[in-house]
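Hi everyone,

Forwarding the result from last night's run.
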Amino acid sequence: MTSTRNKNTIQDYRIECKSYADSRQWIQYPYSTYGQAYDVSMPSLGITPSRMPWNTLSNNPADIESSLFGINSTNLVNPQPEVIPELKHIPVKSYFETIPLIMPDLFDVSSIQRPYPIPK
């Protein structure tokens, strides 16, 4: 029996392939919401980073996390070697100019210049 629906036409097949390719491109775009930043840096003042990829702070994040959770810690046949963290240096970036803070001189309160003297 032949197919009478549009599901098996060449045009529909091309539309489905384009849809799959577009979704793959959307998912694999490196600078998307779930991807990495253009310039990875920590803010110096004001905002806190909301999301950072798992491999931004160190070169071996999976080993560090496994060690912290105690994964493979009771393996007596092949004990896990001690994990040495390979941390990355993340530069600090200033997003806006700040005005320098001007502090006044220390305020000296004299106890004899009040209507009611402060007892010592």
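The longest helix spans residues 10-28.

Cheers,
N.
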